[in-house]
Automatic annotation (TrEMBL), chain A:
Belongs to the sorting nexin family. GO terms for cellular component: early endosome; phagophore assembly site. It comes from Cyprinus carpio carpio. This is Sorting nexin 7. GO terms for biological process: autophagy of mitochondrion; endocytic recycling; piecemeal microautophagy of the nucleus; protein transport; reticulophagy. PANTHER family: SORTING NEXIN-4 (PTHR45949), SORTING NEXIN-7 (PTHR45949:SF3). It comes from the Eukaryota. Keywords: Protein transport, Transport. SUPFAM superfamilies: BAR/IMD domain-like, PX domain.
TrEMBL record, chain B:
This is Sorting nexin 4. It comes from Cyprinus carpio carpio. InterPro entries: AH/BAR_dom_sf, PX_dom, PX_dom_sf, PX_SNX4, SNX4, SNX4_BAR. Residues 44-172 form the PX domain. One of its GO terms (cellular component) is SNARE complex.
Length: 404, 434
């Protein structure tokens, strides 16, 4: 098997990058416009000097750790993109990899730019590790393995694009998260060469998941405590209600898409019928043909609109619907007031963070949808107005009708 | 609020012509082109009412009556505005009037009545004849029918039509007294029979073909449109669910609550707006339907031409055969088969007296036959002439009316788009406050 995966497609002016599997001692090629120092890559996993949450084991020490700044986004120092899907065929299977590009100024990274290729399985692994390591925190969901809606084939262009966007959102959520972004697993995911990643994965549960076990054990120990903080109860109630609403919105939007598609099916027959009619007419042939054209153009715009809903609003709603499943799972973690106060704080901060994020995401998704709808109607309006214009100038030219 | 660049196309002017306004345009056109009847009186079908009564078989029935109002034109323009003359008529009386016109003016493309039963309905619209919306649309259709007849150069001067508008009592009897029924029956029989015409006027054959095509394509368009309307209704109404869920969701949110709540209201408004949109589209559908039925009237005229042509050809054929028979008798050669001829051959020749009598009879028949052919020929020529004049008139009317209908459809679409732009811009504002 060739040790090179070549990025053969051209995207946004980047030069082709060849990433060899064995990179020890080698220099990575980077963007020509970046004036950067290139370091040779050190493949050791742990780095004692970096802020690494997974290193601590005692609950007490965790208290300090989880006190973090809320407004960290002002100083965003890591940027991740997911793009460039590529198909790979082996004897056993066909799969898609996505290019993951990282740009960062964080000191715990050996370099300021990384480019790797990852497949869906790798993202799943990362999510699993984060959840294990931080069972009390909210990990953004991943798109589902398969689209259950029936018709979509796994390697259909639209499906791949939708998935790519979701994976991009996922990684960005991780990168923006004060705790997750410092995760060693995350770092490995972003930087390791494929072979490295595979062997790292194989390391077994290791002490990272042992840490997770610790937390779970502690949590189990305080299960069944009678007094629950008022806030926590409120949060659970909210989660339940929110989960319902988001699910409903997801369903409503999907229903809208269905209805739009059926409307489109019927509308598609209108244009040709007008065109057919124009063939039997003389004076009317021209206006009938024009109307047929207008209807056909509106069809195209409607198709666009449906696609937009599918590509933009639905995935976001869907992800938040999936989120709430995660949120609800935390029901078994009853918190005592004196014990595991660290967990409470972490929970609360994470919760506040999540709510803020949710608000931003959903707001922008709905604003975006509204904008696109306005756009759709504006385009259709233009189509019909130009028809009207042509009819009126025609008529006035022929002296037939007075439109004053 | 988004105003999507209508300033750029200054020629357009008023794009907010409502369907009722465009209907008025139609009426005005009819009045302007004016027959003497329309120059004299204003006609309208002002109201519709439900009545109950006993029918022919003495059973209770509910039916609708329509109020026909007529008003002298001068009075209206002088501003004195007197109370109009009025009378009530049922749909069946309109039908009777139309049948009378069909028989009496076979060369005219007689305006059609609005449909008897609601067809091409999309499912939310009622197919019930008693439904107030259906009754209202029918009222408009009946008024349109009367105005069409009143603006027709030939039909408008008909006395039966005039008394339909002005004499409430005894009108039915007057119609039956014309004896049109008898003509109608025989005509109907003849029209339904299949016959082949040897030399139809090409133009009429083409017109009939056009009538077939028009009927077929408008039916298809109406069907497709109804289905699309159905679907569009679904799309809009589902957005109402957004309204409900946003409202519920806003109850559990703090900062997002207001934005969500008001966005929800706009979603409700959006969902509700489809009712008006589709009602307007029904007007458009009605305009198409009128020409769907007009296609039938056009084909009827073509069929009548075929009938007159056929009758002429039959008469001519009969004449030819009689002439041939005479020739054979005179020369003694038998070219045409006749049973009498064969039997006389078999059972012996006939006497000279018998032959004389036969020839005499044939001569009379030939004379009559020639008269008949002449008659029918004239009939045919006159029919062709009158019918073609009316067909040309109809063509012009159709081109004008349908073009107006397409324009009003565009205007409707524009209005729908403008509403959509407004709602979603409002929603966008609310969402950004989330």
């Amino acid at each position: 098997m060739s040790g090179f995966v070549v990025d053969s497609t051209v995207s946004s002016g980047n030069s082709s990058v060849a990433i060899p599997t064995d990179i020890s001692g080698q220099i990575l090629d980077l963007d020509e416009d970046d004036d950067l120092e290139v370091f040779s890559k050190d493949t050791t996993v742990t780095d004692g000097s970096s802020f690494n949450a997974s290193m601590q084991t005692s609950p007490a020490s965790m208290i300090n750790q989880y006190k973090f700044e809320e407004d960290a986004e002002d100083t965003k120092d890591i940027f991740v993109t997911v793009d460039n899907p590529e198909s790979h065929v082996t004897a056993i299977e066909t799969y898609i990899t996505y290019r993951v590009v990282t740009k960062t100024t964080r000191s715990e990274f050996d370099s300021s730019e990384f480019e790797v290729r990852r497949r869906y399985q790798d993202f799943l692994w990362l999510k699993g590790r984060l959840e294990e390591a931080h069972p009390t925190l909210i990990v953004h969901p991943l798109p589902e393995k398969f689209v259950v809606k029936g018709m979509v084939e796994r390697f259909n262009e639209d499906f791949i694009e939708t998935r790519r966007r979701a994976l991009h959102r996922f990684l960005n959520k991780i990168a923006e998260h004060p705790i997750f972004s410092s995760s060693e697993d995350f770092k490995i995911f972003l930087t390791a060469a494929p072979g490295e990643l595979t062997s790292y994965k194989k390391q077994g549960p290791g002490f990272l998941s042992r840490m997770g076990e610790t937390v779970k054990a502690v949590a189990a120990a305080v299960r069944g405590v009678r007094n629950r903080p008022q806030e926590f109860t409120e949060m659970q109630e909210y989660v339940e209600a929110f989960s319902q609403k988001i699910s409903s919105l997801d369903k409503v939007t999907q229903r809208i898409v269905r209805e739009q598609k059926e409307y489109l099916e019927e509308l598609k027959e209108c244009g040709p019928t007008y065109a057919l009619w124009s063939q039997s007419e003389e004076e009317l042939a021209e206006p009938l043909k024009d109307v047929a054209g207008c209807v056909d153009r509106c069809c195209k715009e409607t198709e666009e609109q449906v696609k937009n809903l599918n590509d933009n609003l639905i995935p976001v709603l869907h992800e938040y619907a999936l989120c709430t499943d995660t949120l609800k799972m935390r029901d078994d973690l009853d918190k005592a007031e004196d014990r595991l106060e660290w967990a409470n704080n972490a929970l609360k901060s994470d919760w506040t963070r999540w709510q803020k994020d949710m608000r931003t995401d959903l707001r922008s998704a709905f604003v975006d949808t509204a904008e696109r709808n306005v756009n759709y109607y504006e385009k259709c309006l233009a189509v019909w107005e130009s028809f009207l214009h042509s009819q009126r100038t025609d008529a006035e030219g022929n002296g037939n009708v007075d439109f004053s | 609020m988004a105003d999507s660049g209508s300033e750029e196309i200054a020629v357009i002017g008023n794009t907010d012509l409502t369907p009722s306004e465009s209907e008025n345009n139609l009426k005005n056109t009819m009045v302007e082109k004016g027959t003497s009847l329309l120059k004299m009186m204003e006609i309208s079908v002002a109201e519709a009412e439900k009545r109950t009564g006993k029918n022919a078989v003495n059973m209770q029935e509910t039916y609708t009556v329509y109020l026909i109002e007529t008003r002298p034109v001068d009075a209206a323009s002088e501003g004195t505005n007197p109370v109009p003359d009025s009378l009530w008529r049922r749909y069946s009386e309109f039908e009777l009037l139309r049948n009378y016109l069909l028989v009496t003016y076979p060369f005219s493309v007689v305006p059609p009545l609005p449909e008897k039963r609601a067809e091409f309905v999309w499912h939310k619209l009622s197919a019930d004849n008693m439904d107030p919306d259906f009754v209202e649309r029918r009222r408009v259709g009946l008024e349109n029918f009367l105005l069409r007849v009143a603006s027709h150069p030939d039909l408008s001067s008909d006395k039966i039509f005039y008394s339909f508008l002005t004499e409430e009592n005894g009108w039915k009897e007057t119609v039956f007294e014309t004896g049109f029924q008898a003509k109608a029956d025989s005509r109907l029989k003849a029209l339904n029979a299949t016959f082949r015409v040897k030399n139809p006027d090409k133009r009429f054959a083409e017109m009939k073909h056009y009538g077939d095509e028009l009927q077929s394509v408008i039916s298809q368009l109406l069907r497709v449109r109804a289905r699309a309307a159905d679907r569009l209704y679904g799309v809009y109404k589902v957005h109402g669910n957004y309204g409900r869920v946003f409202s519920e969701w806003s109850a559990i949110e703090k900062e997002m609550g207001d934005g969500l709540q008001s966005a929800g209201h706009h979603m409700d408004a959006y969902a509700a707006s489809v009712d008006d949109i589709l009602e307007e589209e029904e007007h458009y559908a009605d305009q198409l339907k009128e020409y769907l039925f007009y296609a039938d009237a056009l084909r009827a005229v073509c069929r009548k031409h075929e009938l007159t042509q056929y009758e002429l050809e039959m008469a001519a054929q009969d004449l030819t055969s009689k002439k041939q028979q005479r020739e054979e008798l005179a020369t003694g050669t038998i070219r045409t088969f006749s049973l009498k001829g064969m039997t006389s051959k078999l059972f012996g020749q006939e006497t000279p007296e018998q032959r004389e009598a036969k020839v005499k009879m044939l001569e009379t028949q030939i004379e009559e036959g020639e008269e008949l052919v002449k008659e029918r020929n004239t009939e045919c020529e006159e029919f062709v002439k009158s019918a073609w004049v009316d067909i040309e008139r109809f063509k012009e009317q159709k081109d004008h009316d349908l073009r107006e209908a397409l324009i009003s459809y565009a205007i409707m679409q524009i209005s729908m788009c403008k509403k959509g732009i407004q709602v979603w811009n409002n929603a966008k504002e609310c969402f950004s406050k989330m």
